[in-house]
Amino acid sequence: MGRSISQDAVHKQSLDDPKAFWGKHAEALYWHKKPSVVLKEGHKTIATDIKHPHWSWFPDGQISTDYNCLDRHVQAGYGDKTAIIWDSPVTKTKQKYTYSQVLAEVESLAAVLRNEGVEKGDVVLIYMPMIPAALFGILATVRLGAIHAVVFGGFAPASLAQRIEASKARVILTASCGIEGTKKPTSYQPFVRGAVETSQWKPEKIIVWQREQSLWENLSESKGERDWQKLVELAKENGDSAQSVPINSGDGLYIIYTSGTTGLPKGVLRYAGGHAVGLMLSMAYLFGIRGPGDVMFCASDIGWVVGHAYILYAPLLAGATTILFEGKPVGTPDAGTFWRILSEYNVNTLFTAPTALRAIRREDPENKHFTRYGERGGFKNLQALFLAGERSEPSIVSMYQDLIKKYARTGAQVIDHWWSSESGSPMTGIALMPSKGDVSGNESEDVPLQMKAGSAGKPMPGWNIRVVDDKGGEVGRGTMGNIVLGMPLSPTGFTTLFNDEERFYKGYLKRFDGKWLDTGDAGMIDQDGYVHVMSRSDDIINVAAHRFSTGSIEQVITANPSIAESCVVGIPDALKGQLPFAFVTLSAADHPSSPIPSEELFKSVQDSIRTQIGGIAALGGMIQGKGMIPKTRSGKTLRRVLRELVENAVHGDFEAEVQYPATIEDAATIDVARAKIREYFEQKGSKLHKAIEDRPKAKL
Ligand code: AMP
Predict the structure, then answer these.
(1) Structure confidence at residue 16 (pLDDT)
(2) What domains, with CATH codes, occur in the chain?
(3) Residues in domain AMP-binding enzyme C-terminal (predicted)?
């Protein structure tokens, strides 16, 4: 020992010789047919003369992800290890399942699905709440070599219908209800029936998990509706069980519809082989979860890519324990729920979204809950708190960094890491166990890099991350631009959209002529190679020909201790083209009702923007209010919605309709924002130039 390998060196290995690198990491899995080729690269021709790069990982390999998640561990003698812990404060239930128990459930359910007509290559749509049956349903689908499309439980019928039609699902797995936070159970029956009625495509069967909190009334045999528990019981009585069916490495494992803020959802197709290899490596390398006995708590939803990967697949591929949480960061019952879970189950790694931490900070600004569990030694095993989904402002990273330094394992870090539905696994981060990526064969010890607040860490293996200008030319270190990817992407990455090659080309490759794949994100790589993801490219604002990311301005605003959350959008300005305009929520328990911030607060924010970014980025206005920043259910701020509202207001229109995606967490926030904007503009004068009179003179 004594030698350590750096994350940079592992990354270099992966790009210099991808075949050697991924070929070695593929050995960690069981292949029904070992791949003889690691990577095949070429081109695909679509429609009229358009050719674009295409590649496939492990093209002649055959694999069953299900076998690797379950059978492999049971056969290796880990059947009694805990696979899944279900913690559901909303139903006051806690349950544990060992690997053997999960395997037994999945074998029976897969037999049921087979009897109901599901075959290899069919699509099964899964519309479920956060209960163990949802995970069994996904695994049973995969066991048969079928493809799952998990749709976030609670989507309205129209959105669900779109996804049924797009995926041409043969069967739907669902439950009688979902339970969100402290609200009454939501019956899924009208949603699912309504969606099937609207959809042109009709699934043959709807298999319903009955929850006692609200039953699916009068299951209709003629509509193909079936009682899940009864079918499984019968299968168990008959000793019906299904073996895992391997599929080609390049066959689809799942389709995930991206949240997208407008337009039709895009179905990202994930391939079996590359997905399993990439996730398996990431578990130990990035997240520090080594195998049986280690516990991962990913507080996401199974409807999102993060939930697919780190609630389900990666922890089970590694043989570790995963926590399935049915609740919210606050309100179920309080802002201490996450911290209770960490201490109750000795969690090693927590993964959540910054929005969850903001919600907790708002409820518990003094971190009383965290401190209470910390002082009792509840975070002894905690080695990292991973954040993703949107940018984490440095103020939240530093706050939790200070807390975990005090109470968690020595060296524990808060790690912002960047990824997307398209990437399927993290593209950046801080690797907790760099030695696990090293393919040089030398023994080495783990010395993780230090996180830099404001960055999302450094590239993960296989991700060739570059920053380019609008013409595709690379910009220097420290310069903002479009974040793009060199191809081939790392093995978990997508290579097309489900049944929509043209949209794949137009949406991701056309902009840079097939040379780079456009991530849609903007940011920079700093002098030390850390990647800073500042915002979506659409959220870049142009003030007097200077480009700013809204993220960098928000970062300065949220550093102000009296501000809990902020959202910056660009508004039209006759002189400068655009001006930044901020929406803020204060940390005060008694939030002032006026939308106009105190002069003192406004001045202090402007002063910090002026000193940290420059006078040119000074705000054109700032509205304060609670519950007015719309977000998606996966925690992304919907800046476009606020931008449209404020743009309309600038033109004196306070009523204009705005489009918002079906993934919105709470549509009522839009009404609150609308009312605040109106109040603000009416008090300041109906037109923007009045509203910005108090804008300090820019020092250029
Ligand atoms: P989705 O496909 O719904 O997972 O959304 C992916 C998008 O979320 C990315 O393209 C980014 O815009 C954003 N995102 C995810 N993680 C981060 C992060 N750590 N920092 C900044 N943006 C992020």
Answers:
(1) 98
(2) 7-62+419-533 (2.30.38.10), 544-690 (3.30.300.30)
(3) 553-636
